[in-house]
């Protein structure tokens, strides 16, 4: 919300869209990884959570942070303000309906039907594995699912956004003309 998702072209010689995409995302990636480290250090040393595998918790946090920041960035850069609104709706639905607050079995039926289509439950399950103990390869499976969402975010950010680039530039120019933002 604070940083603009689009990279400026000032001083660049004919940058390609994917170069602008990854170049700008690098800022969001670094900030999200710093945030992850601060949160997990706080969990371990300030809140003193009991964690059987703190190293794997940091790996899970890094993958989760990467997936979510990439998904949010891709939607925002691809669809502009509409993408930001989609992100807010998706995040609210995930927190409410992804077994983060209550077991999924206690939630309304609609959440039980859609919760596996969001990345949040996979992140929660992987973190539970780190905190409570490993069961087979469940941890790796959950991280693999998270990376599938990251791959989907790359498709959105690199391919799906192409048809919307002109429309987004037009909408941003009209928004700037209003001098409201």
Structure explained in plain terms:
Helices cover 72% and strands 0% of the residues. Helix 1 crosses helix 2. It is mostly helical and 181 residues long. It has helices at 17-46, 54-97, 109-114, 120-132, 138-160, 165-178. The protein starts with 16 loop residues before the first helix and ends with a helix. The chain is globular, with a radius of gyration of 18 Å. The model has no long low-confidence stretch (mean pLDDT 87).
Which terms would index this structure?
181 residues, mainly alpha, 0% strand
Kindly provide the radius of gyration, computed on alpha-carbon positions and rounded to a whole number of angstroms: 18 Å
- Tell me, rounded to a whole number, the average pLDDT: 87
Q: Structural class of the secondary structure composition?
A: mainly alpha
Given the structure, what is the number of helices?
Answer: 6
Largest sheet: none
